[in-house]
Amino acid sequence: MTHHRTPKETTMPKGTITILGLGAMGSAVADRLRATGHDTTVWNRTPAKTAPHRAAGSNVASTVAEAANASDLVLVVLLDHASVREHLEPVAADLKHRVVVNLTTTTPNEARSTAAWAAAHGITYLDGAIMAVPDMIGRPGARLLYSGDENAYAIARPVLETLGTAEYEGTDAGLASLKDMALLAAMYQMFGGVLHAIAMMRTVGAAPTDTARDLVDWLGALIPIAADFGADVEKREYAAPPGQSVDFTRPALASIITASREQGISADFLEPVKKHLDELAATGRGGAEWASVVEQLTIE
Q1: pLDDT per residue over 194-243, tens digit each?
Q2: How many CB atoms lie within 10 A of CB 122?
Q3: Which residues contact 49 (CB under 8 A, 6 or more apart)?
């Protein structure tokens, strides 16, 4: 559950912000911080990427240690978990008593691992997940999730809120990443369905842009049903409304799979859902709401 708390302290001086990593996202973060009046120090493995930031007014550090020592708040925007540990572990002593906010995409357990390492070295650590593309940073719609040390969030929050809507998920450092991955799982599966529909309609010459417009209208009208699914799963009550039972949905999905194959389109995106519905029907749960398939997703 998302928690919105009043910061206990906001002692971070304006200025003194380090950004480690100047890929597309790191550069967007650095640009936004400069635009909002913060002094920044940047570092990147490939020094050439620092040139535009130096020209725009950032201080450039030649080493991670130099960058860490330049600021009380260090934002980490690197490639992956391995690169985070590779670059932070050698400078643990330099990061001691500083606030480190890791905005690198990681899994929940990777975030927890880094948080435990940070705690062992006296580093105040906050994990972050960016629900935005680089162009959205600092604009309406940018959403960033944070979890871990609550005081780190309180201290860094005024800075973090310049990047987008900031949401604190809790003290478990893995929560921001978990929510990020969960929301992205839904996104990728939704877009997989979008591409499946476009592929089907393209077989008869329909313009992909036309199908996409139809999908925006269709899916937009259906999205609110997610709230109903959430309520049913929370109560674990799966009495099926008309047209939403497993027994109703199975043949409907089977027809879509058959139609796809008739058009020469793979049903790889759809078959796993059908498999779960078949298992429910085979175990006497065909009359339940098909959203009850969620109970089969937990790996024993």
Answers
A1: 999 999 999 999 999 999 999 999 999 999 999 999 999 999 999 988 88
A2: 12
A3: 22, 23, 27
